[in-house]
Amino acid sequence: MSDLADLTLAEASRGLRAREFTSVELLEAVHRRAAMTEANLHAYLTLDRDGAARAAVAADSAFKAGTDLGPLQGVPVALKDNMVTRGLETTCSSKILSGYEPPYDGTAVSRLRDGGAVIMGKTNLDEFAMGSSTENSAYGPTRNPWDPDRVPGGSSGGSAAAVAAGSAMVAYGSDTGGSIRQPAAMCGIVGLKPTYGLVSRYGLIAFASSLDQIGPLTRRVEDAVAALEVVGGHDPADSTSYPGPVPDYRSGLESGVSGLRVGVVTELNGEGIEPAVQEAVDRTIARLEAAGATIVPVSLPSLEYALSAYYLIAPAECSANLARFDGVRYGLRRLGENVEEMMSNTRAEGFGPEVTRRILLGTYALSAGYYDAFYGQAQRVRTLIIRDFQAAYEQADVLVSPTSPTTAFPVGERTADPLSMYLSDVCTIPSNMSGDPAISVPVGLDGAGLPIGFQVMAPALGEPVMVRVAAEVERLAGFDARARFASSEVQ
Questions:
Q1: Catalytic residue of the set 179, 200, 319, 424
Q2: How far apart are CA 221 and CA 475, in angstroms?
Q3: Residues 116-139: pLDDT tens digits?
Q4: Which phi and psi angles does 452 have, rounded to 5°?
Q5: CA dist., res. 155 & res. 158, Å (int)
Q6: Which residues, 6 or more positions from 421, have their beta carbon under 8 angstroms from its beta carbon?
């Protein structure tokens, strides 16, 4: 590729170490790409030009001194704007946090800085990560680089659009019900949700604490693995952080799928999936079988209730978490005659309609007389889902499905119909409910030239076998979004 902005993470990392170019030159190329694309895409809320420039100079100095800080050293990285960054505005795309500059870095951000990453800025998202299209942002929607009249998916739509368009080489998002994988699928890139607890949530502004997980969005599977290694590992500041050693993800990337059992989830294929998406998924499964995998039909009966259970558990936890935004300590404040009126005025102006809808739903589900009937029952369904997954992984090493039932839909098409929007995550929500890892890999285009994502799921801490299969899916598909977005073609 003639433009440095079109490099993958692995290519950029090799080039920096071979002194083919500097981190400063790499950053300049990515900034040029952002200047070309941002007017149409709006992937970023904040571009930290000064901070990124300092980080690039520091990375180059470390290279000259012979210091190797890891695979992200000197590489431009974008962060979803619900990851707190010291001294850099962090809004969650909400008016209620307008102007908020955190006094600390989250753990994932600290690990990125320690690893020499060049943080470009903060990307747009659905407000407080609540949405599937990045249209719920208080600062305007992000658009899909493949077709600006289409959504990029959500809630990490800004991160996905930035990587797809080349205005970041790696981006990080959060995944509560598919918010990394679904936008990755719609933007033709790779999105990885790790096992719950594998990446610290300290410094991730919470939506639903038992579901949220930070993960990377990249152009290639090997890049996602490298990006995960940098931020993964135990953190005493997060009580839900996995205390064991981080698995070895890299060793199996070239091993192929011969001898592996690939389970095709009956409930996530067929009915409700767009024909072009299903055809691409079926074609990919056939290729895996030809490559030596054993294909096993698998049923997860409780998935019928997963979407309903999720939309009780997530809003309930959201209701509890967002109670802290009261106009007293940080962010927006609108005065009233007393404290109660001040809080009411602040929240009425600060929260958008989707956040308000979920707070009301969650508060109702947790209220006296309804807790057991709604939230308690949803948690029991969650237990059934976990058991179904455990049984399925006795039959198969990984499970596969479409990532999204559709390709990217037009901007504005579903904003007036919350249920149709919620159905965008029907294939991704189950892995959040079980806490297991999952990854989306692009495998082709539909008739309108829009990307299609293929999801690979694995048991808890099963990232090594998951990325092994994902890497083979990637090789078999031969899909490379850069052919569409090379250099000046992104406008």
A1: 179
A2: 10
A3: 999 999 999 999 999 999 999 999
A4: -120, 135
A5: 8
A6: 131, 132, 133, 414, 415
Report residue 224 as tokens.
Answer: 């996602």
Among candidate residues 110, 155, 319, 431, the one labeled active-site is 155
Of the residues 13, 23, 80, 95, only one is catalytic, namely: 80
Which H helix or E strand runs over 285? helix 275-290
Q: Are 137 and 105 in contact (CB under 8 A)?
A: no
Catalytic, 255? Answer no
- 4-262+394-489 has CATH 3.90.1300.10 classification: yes
For CA atoms 249, 228, 21, 57, give the dihedral sign.
negative
Model pLDDT for residues 308-343, shown as the tens digit of each residue: 999 999 999 999 999 999 998 888 999 999 999 999
65 Cβ contact partners less than 8 Å away, ≥ 6 residues apart: none
Does the annotation mark 155 as catalytic? yes
- Write the CB contacts of 34 (distance below 8 Å, at least 6 apart in sequence): 43, 44, 47, 120, 162, 167
pTM of the model: 0.96
- Measured CA to CA, the distance from residue 77 to residue 91 in angstroms comes to 18
95 is catalytic: no
29, 168, 245, 453 from 180: Cα distances, Å: 25, 15, 24, 12
